UniProtKB/TrEMBL annotation:
PROSITE patterns associated with the record: TPR, TPR_REGION
InterPro entries per the UniProt record, alphabetical: TPR-like_helical_dom_sf, TPR_rpt, Ycf3
Protein name per UniProt: Uncharacterized protein
Organism annotation: Gigaspora rosea
Pfam families named in the record: TPR_1, TPR_16, TPR_19, TPR_8
Length: 432
């Protein structure tokens, strides 16, 4: 069993690399020490750690490999050697070095940090959480920003935003330029409606690391939410130049193209997505684009294929129900949409489309119930606002009709469609 003085030394040794990585004087001293004593293992692995922090991996490997030739069981040299493999994306090699380091020295905090990051990047979140907690249980200090950042990342994935924010905030206080934390903090702030603060985080992160695909995609989503689609598409184009197969960027761009009715471009992105990953959701979304283009046979083909793979997919059931509704096949439409709502009672689009069918069938009060529930889930959905406005018009409730139709025009992003709707409302005698 290791005693507290061993753990204290572990903290001190971990701090050595963090503290002196940016101090040229310290590097000069290490160079002199190694010139005088070429086989000084401590000096070699510490300098190797500094080179790792500076992303000089070839120089780091030279020092670390020499240190391990002299002392194969030096746990800190093994730990830093594992970090080099981690930074190079060689996760299996990293774990081999780290596991050996921890077998020799179970209190090596540096190794726990590195292994926690390896597990995080491989998606082994429970193992990562356990390692990162071991480090932070010893105490949070000026070297804990990465550990806090990754644990915050796990809380974020788990949906525990309060704990994620707490870790991210502490991490940023220690290291304000940590791009991983800035972008993930921005993502949480965006979801909570703090758009200005989220945008500031994304922009600062991209000033430091301009080619980070995750952050480009997150900022694009925020720009889309703020109706700045030119900026959103610019970020997504850049993300996809860096990584042409990044699914989330392709999906976000295809959805924006669909929103602004550039259907051919949306279709092209969905074709690419289905090449990469032929999932039922992507087939369903491509089927939706085909429907919007009036290519109904192709739409049915995609939607049917998706439901063969996943018969209870509420999104795809909703989209096929909508297609039946467009073709006035109300019974088939309601069968699909009711099935979707059995699977997910809060599927907003299913509620909207069923409300629209009820309206067209003359079941106006039932339509209002569905549309109100849909708007409680998505208060600024232009389609739901438009349909509930039309339903109120059918009920001769012109004040409510005008109120909702006016809201629908304010949130509608497509100018030509907005003008078309405005003209139609005026012809109906509704001056919104």
């Amino acid at each position: 069993m290791r005693n507290e003085s061993d753990k204290t030394q572990s903290i001190k040794t971990r701090g050595d690399i963090y503290r002196i990585s940016k101090k040229q004087e310290a590097i000069n001293d290490l160079n002199k020490s190694i010139d005088i004593e070429p086989n000084n293992v401590y000096a070699l692995w510490v300098r190797g750690g500094i080179y790792t922090r500076q992303e000089k991996y070839d120089e780091a490997l030279k020092d670390l490999n020499k240190a391990l030739e002299i002392d194969p069981n030096n746990s800190y040299a093994l730990g830093v050697r594992g970090e080099v493999s981690l930074k190079k994306g060689e996760f299996d090699d990293a774990l081999e070095y780290i596991d050996k380091a921890l077998k020799i020295d179970p209190d090596n905090l540096y190794a726990f940090e590195v292994r926690g990051e390896v597990y995080f990047k491989r998606g082994n979140l429970n193992d990562a959480f356990e390692d990162l907690n071991k480090v932070l249980e010893i105490g949070v200090d000026s070297n804990s920003f990465d550990t806090l950042g990754f644990r915050g990342g796990i809380y974020r994935v788990r949906g525990d935003n309060e704990k994620a924010l707490k870790d991210f905030t502490k991490s940023i206080e220690i290291e304000p330029n940590n791009t991983f934390v800035l972008s993930r903090l921005g993502d949480i702030l965006q979801r909570q409606g703090y758009d200005k603060e989220a945008l500031a985080n994304f922009t600062k992160s991209l000033e430091i690391e301009p080619n980070d695909v995750f952050t480009l995609r997150c900022r694009a989503q925020l720009y889309n939410k703020l109706r700045e689609n030119d900026k959103a598409l610019k970020d997504l184009d850049k993300a996809l130049q860096i990584n042409p197969n990044h699914k989330f960027s392709l999906e976000t761009r295809s959805e924006i193209y669909r929103e602004i009715r550039e259907y051919e471009k949306s279709l092209k992105d969905y074709n690419k997505l289905i090449e990469i990953s032929p999932s039922p959701n992507y087939l369903g979304k491509r089927g939706t684009v085909y429907r919007l283009m009036g290519r109904y046979e192709k739409a049915f083909k995609d939607l049917n294929q998706a439901l063969e793979q996943e018969p209870n997919n509420s999104y795809v059931l909703t989209m096929r129900g909508r297609l039946h509704g467009v073709l006035d096949r109300y019974e088939d439409a309601l069968n699909d949409i009711n099935h979707a709502l059995e699977e997910d009672p809060d599927e907003a689009w299913a509620l909207m489309y069923r409300g629209d069918i009820y309206r067209r069938q003359g079941r106006l009060e039932e339509a209002i119930i569905d549309l109100k529930k849909a708007l409680s889930i998505e208060p600024t959905n232009s389609f739901a606002l438009r349909i509930i406005g039309m339903t109120y018009y059918g009920l001769k409730k012109h004040k409510e009709a005008i109120l909702n139709l006016d809201k629908s025009l304010k949130v509608e992003q497509d100018y030509e469609f907005k003008m078309k709707m405005l003209k139609m409302y005026h012809q109906m005698g509704l001056f919104v």
